[in-house]
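## tool: complex_structure
## caller: assistant
## args:
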Amino acid sequence: MSRTVMIDPVSRIEGHAKITIQLDDLGDVVDAHFHVVEFRGFEKFCEGRPLTEMPSLTGRICGICPVSHLMASAKAGDAILSVRIPPAADRLRRIMNLGQMLQSHALSFYYLSGPDLLLGWDADPAIRNVFGLAKANPELARKGIRLRQFGQEVIEQLGGKRIHPAWAVPGGVRSGLTLEAKEKLLAWIPEARATVTETLSLFKGLLDSLQDEVDFFGHFPSLFLSLVGPEGAWEHYDGHLRICDAMGHILADGIDPADYLDHLGEAVESDSYLKFPYYKPLGYPEGIYRVGPLARLNTCTHIGTPLADVELLEYRQRFGSIVNASFLFHYARLIEMLAAVEYIERLLNDPESSGTRLRAEAEVNQLHGVGVSEAPRGTLFHDYTVDGDGLIQKVNLLIATGQNNLAMNKTVAQIARHCIHGTKIPEGVLNRIEAGVRTFDPCLSCSTHAYGSMPMVVQLLAADGGVVDEVRRD
Amino acid sequence: MKHTDSPSHHDSILVIGYGNDLRGDDGAGRLVADIVETWRLPYVRTVSVPQLVPETAEEIAEARLVIFVDAYPARAGWPVHAMPIEPRETCPTFGHQSDPSSMLRLSQLLYGHCPEAWMVGVPGVGFDCCEGLSETTEAAVYDAVGEVRKLVELAHGGAQ
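## result:
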């Protein structure tokens, strides 16, 4: 008799989800699914609101990555106003976006995944947590906390608060950075750089013992998508879209982010509130692609800062110029933290970031605009249609976690097939499956924003597992 | 985070009010901390945050007394309560949010000090998405401020 194994809730991710694994009569894994059971509705209730409210409103989607929504939303607003924002506003938005990336990556690595990586998958669950980490390596835990604080301080110095700063607006930003704030942040740079460098060394030292995880935690070919800058440089805020395949062939390049719907489609499934984006030319689900740190390091030619470029070179020497192992999201995340620290230092020292002209003033000049930036978890699209008065008529949000949905499902199935044979499932295996999802650092608060178009199936099951009633909404 | 003039934190009293002020009465703890901040006492520091996070652990370790203030789900007529709390590993998965006992334990583990700590609970009767407090909770806020004042005076008087 077939059996379903359920993991509910999935812990140490941002949001609530469950995983089901379908076994056949022999106890082998047939299929596995990552279900997102949260429901939000932002796309619908933004309708009718003024364009100028959108950055603050959509920033409320998430308490972890509000800055990412702030950026993409403000950029969609820039497009609707048809303005090029002042150079100082550009530099300051970049600094805040990097601060966001740094604090979010630090949360993912030190708080959420660190216990697994440093204490081991088979460690007692009672100690495999942040307290266990604090006991095993208090210095690393302290430094990780300080690093995240630095990222949050960057956000607070610019936006006035760490969570939900109402700072970026269509046309620019509300305020600049004082000299005192710049000096405070610059003084913190050496410590932040040292922490990331030490953590990279620690992680690389663990890699030999993590070969299994590299091999089966979502190791499969897929496409990769991200923004890239001039000459294919790593980019987090602007630029154009690039899509490459598992061998590194560039399938599409120089894509204007506003044309994303020509290349990307969104499928829906009945068992999850998370949409399933795919690359249109290959169809669904063959057009599976990944976004985020792993994708950004696969699509870029170089990062553009000295230390991060050295680390990128070593990463590629170890695993090839295109990395298909989802487990190495962790490694890529660490390299991006180093890049973020270096870029923040460079931008703080850039005289343009001290400019006093911070906002381009304009009325609505286009009825449609798309804003795209790189959130910590991947490429983020905000697509708005407004009326002549700037009131929102339609919103489409394409979120990083959603774009990794197909890949997360595939990762769960791969780990389950590797680990589960028969009906006994040890704790270590369940944790590996959760940890496989955690490599993507999914943010479910962000990704379950859709409204009204989710098919749903509700089944009433008898004690023997048979379906006695079913309600379906297509 | 607000700092009253305090060159050395180790003798200070820390009042942490936390909650989501877009969830009605859940913001009560933050309002209490904001009121305490207006006292401008040199030996009292206040923190007003949406949620407890590991980054606050160092701040806690530097205090000699910590008073957490938060709303709790209640019915009209339920009281403000103040109770001592101990460090415990009660929230092992915390990433971006935690509870007071776990924060104390983290301070103890990472910074080698866990101060005396109290939890002041403010009765809340409405936690829907809205700003502002219900009449019940607004009245209770002033009782909670009174409880905080008593604890502060007791600790400060004892230190003199």
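## assistant note: The interface with chain A takes residues 22, 50-51, 54-55, 57-58, 89, 92-96, 102, 105-106, 109-111 of chain B (CB under 8 Å). The two ends of chain B are 27 Å apart (CA to CA). Handing back to user.
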